[in-house]
Write a structure and sequence with these properties.
Layout (H helix, E strand, L loop, with lengths): L2 E5 L2 E4 L4 E8 L8 E6 L6 E6 L5 E3 L7 E6 L4 E6 L8 E7 L10 E6 L1
Parallel strand pairs: 2-10
Antiparallel strand pairs: 1-3, 3-8, 4-5, 4-9, 5-6, 7-8, 9-10
Length: 114
């Protein structure tokens, strides 16, 4: 059974930084395309950043240059370093598989205030 557990969210002022981490069990992060997704009230869950099995990385245009995705194969975690946070980065962040199928974490709140 695959389980994903996000951590590291919280509240920060605009311009600040947060680092999200997703602990994965039941699947090896190195063998799957995985990513971070964001959901805000009334909107669908949108992709923020993904990393493929081969290491190809994608970012949503709104976070390019500010967010960095990485994976730690030894710890089997997926991470997202978020710098220069903006108020519109606020939302619930989920880690999951690129396909959108399968397990999701419980989500973690990120709140950026002005």
């Amino acid at each position: 059974q695959v389980q994903l557990v996000e951590s590291g969210g919280g509240s920060v002022q605009a311009g600040g930084s947060l680092r999200l981490s997703c602990a994965v069990s039941g699947a090896a992060v190195s063998r799957w395309c995985m990513g971070w997704f964001r959901q805000t009230p009334g909107k669908e869950r949108d992709g923020v950043s993904t990393i493929s099995r081969g290491g190809t990385i994608t970012y949503a245009d709104s976070v390019k240059g500010r967010f960095t995705i990485s994976q730690d194969n030894d710890k089997n975690t997926l991470n997202l370093l978020m710098n220069d946070l903006r108020t519109d980065d606020t939302g619930v962040y989920y880690c999951g598989f690129c396909s959108g199928a399968g397990a999701w974490g419980q989500g973690i709140q990120v709140t950026v205030s002005s």
